[in-house]
Batch of 3 targets.
Target 1
Amino acid sequence: MNKDHDSLKEDEENPIWTKDDFEKAQPAQNVLPKEFFASMKKARGQRGKQKDPTKQQVTLRLDPEIIDYFKSQKPEGWQTRLNQALKSYIDEHPI
């Protein structure tokens, strides 16, 4: 084992933060230029923010067999198919 303990020495370029450092810290959006965030590439397969949100996010509890039914057809897009099924039901059964 290395008795010098190099790994425990403080890194001058990245000093250990003090309580005061944490209290003075600000979110990146407040200190970095907007161009920084604009230049960041999205990860592959990551969707961008909706320009004009057309749907609302909700939390909904469903029976497992309902989820299994829609996922068994094809796991991808099961929520879209469930949405379409609900729309069809509404069209056929107006209140």
Note: The radius of gyration is 25 Å.
Target 2
Amino acid sequence: MNKQLKDLKSNYEEQNTPIELEQMIAGFKKRRSARRFYYNSIISIVALMLMFLTSLNISPVLAANMAKIPGFEPIVSALTITKDDSLHKADITVPKVIGTSKEIVALNAKFEKEGKELYKQFALDAKVVHDGHVGIESDYIVKTEKTNLLSFGQYTVNTVASSSTTMKYTSIDPQKQMIITLPSLFKDKAYVNRISLYIEEQMKKEMAKEHTDKTYWVKTGKPEDDLFEAFTKIKKNQNFYINKKNHLVISFDKYEVGPGAMGIVEFEIPTKVINDLLLPNKYIK
């Protein structure tokens, strides 16, 4: 352990914060295994989850210092809760972003609230479908991690009779401790039509390929166009992330722009397509 880490550990112990530094470091390396709990009772899980989610708060000084150390991830899992029996299975990981700004604090509070709601709904479903299969899995995937950019997705797979999958992306600037939204990247609303036209063109190209299995709900001039509500444009705050190449990636959930078999659909937007619409930034290149 280098001197910087030793100093932080010493400062941390003096502050008497609620989480041991050693546990946090281990959690960064083995996120799922270090914070997994097993319980038999739904009631005990809910009670303990509420206790942990309200008590897992990192000291502001420690969090700020840790974020400056090379090698420390700016995101850690606050808690993973697992319930697994023959019929009902829940595996929910709530992410916690390191930061002390109002935006980051509010973001973490939002994640905690969503985690509670997911488990609450699972418990209700398990009670109603007590003799059937019920499952919920939620976790996060880091897409890009750079000095000035963190993009990660939170996926949720909900199984009650059938299966549904959603993915929600979040992008932040760890240095400025601020959330990056889609509108914040552009000069004005012109990006909505520009990106939409590009995506529609790509959909048609993919569907026109020989032996393709791609199907999108986009107008092609064929009779079957009347069978679905066609994609026309993205939302102002469409789900997105920024990949390792610093390219914008637009994401659509299952059933959003095509049949369920298409699953979650993503389109990487070449920067040359939107370059003249971008505000000066270091995120999209």
Note: Strands lie at 36-38, 75-84, 88-97, 134-146, 149-160, 162-173, 178-179, 240-242, 248-252, 265-269.
Target 3
Amino acid sequence: MSIPNCILTKKGQALLAKTPSGEAVPVTRWQLGTGVLAPELAVEDMTALVDPLQYVPISSCTNNGNKATILGQFVNTGLSEFVWEELGLWATDPDEGEILYAVGEARGNGETIEAGTVKLREFVFGMELSFDNAANVTTVIDTSLIFATKEELDAKADQEDLEGKADLDPETGKVVSSQLPALGAWRRVFEVEQWSGGELRVPKTEHGQTPTQKYTLAVLRQRSGRTALDYYGTSAAQGRTGIVNAMKAALAANETTPDTYPTAEDGHVQLTWHQVQYYLLEGVLTSDTEAQSQATAKGFNWQDTVTTGAVTEVTLDQVLTAAYVPALDGSSATLDALCTDTVLQGLKLRRKADGVGEVAQYDLEGKLVSAGWGAMEAQVYWDLDTQDLVVEGAPFAGDVCVMV
């Protein structure tokens, strides 16, 4: 982006001066703007953006000694094209209420951001404040924390270390590659069903990190727009019921018209993956040829698409064999024990998302957005006792990216 620097406003300086030593600055939210500040006006005198566009939630706020790093993020979903000229950070003053704490102005050199319908773009940006609460309040806002995309955030090196130690290539003017420090990110995709008691916990056996501080820089995104979902937890019962009903429909069809569907020696009907998946999605049992045709037309040819990483040695025919007895109104104990959510995931069988009507084209992926309620209402931290990574808040599906 084209905002060259960000500074504290006079109201921000006053708030910082009255913030007790060791306490966090009470920042509240970011704000984007499209206005151009008149040349004769000083940025530090601003109390509001010239032309506000929208507020953006604070995605992460961490304190380490005399430094505070505050991140924000937004996606241009639903926005028309605009020129990004202003970036403001708001905070709560105990005496004055919410104030414009810090602001950056491009002064007419802002970046044009395409409409979300033209090009979907995600932005992660932030400020790093260094201060002391002695006689003089000194503040430096590190604008190197402003990024154009999440990918740039993942690739960003430690700028402070580069300024102190790195050598520049005399031909390109860039830091020599051998001296670029490594900074990576660890990402985890999660579903609503994996939360428990308002928490999503990722054990150390999965993330492999050794945290030393509770809070960390993290990006949360919420997944939306999916019309098909994997089976997790209790939803596996829905999958088992669907398979039993498919078996009942096949047995009834064979009773009316023998040999409509092939039958094994033990009596269970040998349905194909496409037939079962089509039935689970739309409750329709048809020939394998027609089911494959529907898979192509409706976009559920995902039998080779891995989303959960689950692996199973249980075959579809073994599941169908176990479904035969409950299809005859017998016990479902064998099927319940055999056909778990992990087995359904390993077989790449999915269910129709709750609350959606008729689907023209199934979408297993959806979109990950960072401006939704999930990113606004959840926080990410390390449980130093268990070494778990914890996402806390109201459950939602999405992903978390943690700087490591």
Note: Residues 133-165, 371-376 have pLDDT under 50 and may be disordered.
